[in-house]
Amino acid sequence: MELDKIMDTMLHQQRNPDREKLKPFQPEELKNPHARWRINKESMGKYFKLNDIGINLHIPEFNKIQVAHKHSFFELIYVYRGRMKNQVDRIKIDLEQGDFCLMNPDAIHTPVTIGENALALNILMTNDLFEKSFMNLILDNQLLANFFVDSLFQKKQEKNYLVFSQQYLNQTTIQEYLKRILTEYFHTALYQQSVVESLLSCLFVELTRGYQKQLEDTSRKEFSKANLSNIIAYLAENYKTVTVQSVSEHFNYHPKYLPSLLKKYTGKGFSDIVQGFKLSHACQLLKQTDLSIADIVEEVGYSNRSYFYRVFQKQYQMTPSEYRKRIHTSTNLEHFPYEFQ
C-alpha cells in the first residue's frame, strides 16, 4: 500500500473514530483551550497503541482550538502535505511540505496547519524509548547527542526543537520508512514493537544524514570573509587557551564544522593556525627579550617543553637557542612563520 493510501485511511479513521477501538488524540477533548496543558504518558495511555510510541495525524480540524501545550515525551512532526506554522517556546517556525520538526519533552508548542488540505503526521516517543532503543545511535552522532542527552536529563536548552529541512532529505527513502512504520504500527503482527523501533532508528539515520548536509550548507553561507577575519583575530588574541569548542561557541558554529571551514578557506587546520600564532610569539620573545627558553615555552602556552622544541625545529630547521643566536647576525631571517593572508 502506498503512503498516500495509508494517510487517507488514517485521515478517515481519525475523522470517524470507532469508539470501541483505539483512537488518536483529539485536542477538542481539552476542556480549557486557553490553558497550557501538560500531557503525560498516563493521560495519553489510551492513545499509545504500542509501548512508548503513539502516532496520529494533525488535521485541519485541530486548528479550531489552538492549544499551547507540552508533553512529557518527544514529538516528531512531519509535514506531509501543505504547510504548517509551529510556535515553540515563543519562537515562530515556518514548516514546508516535507519538513520535520522534532521537539523535546516540555517544549511548549502550538502547531497549526495552513490550508484546507494540509496534513501533518505526529510521532510521539517517550523518554524510555530513547534511553532503551536509541541511545547508542544518538551518542554516536555528535549532531544529535547534545539535544537528546540534555532533554533526557532535563537540562535547560537554548532551543527546544530541531528542524530537518526537506531540501536536504531523501524524500523517497523517508516516505518508504514512514510507509513501513505506519503499516507495521496499525497492523498487529509478531515482533511489532521491535520492528517499529528499528524502523524509527532507520528514519533517524536518514534525518541525521540530511541534518549534516543542512549544517554544512548553513555554515558555508554564514562563513563570510568578515567572520573569517574575526575568527582569525580571535585566535591571534586568545591562542594560549582557545579550543575548537570555545571558538565554536563564541562564534556560534558547530564544533564539527568549524575546523573544516577554516581548512577550506585558509588552507590550514585549526591546530596549525593556533600553533602558528604560538611560534610567532615565541620568535618575538626570542628576538626582543632575554627570557629563558623555559619561560618562553610557558609564556606562549605550551605545557610540554619537548613538544615545543620538536615543532619549533620542524618549522625552522633549528633549535630556539640557535634561532636566538642567528637573529642577531641575520636581519633577513624570517621570524614570523605564520602570517594570515
From TrEMBL:
It holds the Pfam family AraC_binding. Coiled coil: none annotated. Keywords: DNA-binding, Transcription, Transcription regulation. The keyword Ribonucleoprotein does not apply. SMART domains: HTH_ARAC. SUPFAM superfamilies: Homeodomain-like, Regulatory protein AraC. Gene3D superfamilies: Homeodomain-like, Jelly Rolls. Residues 229-326 form the HTH araC/xylS-type domain. This is AraC family transcriptional regulator. It comes from Clostridium facile.
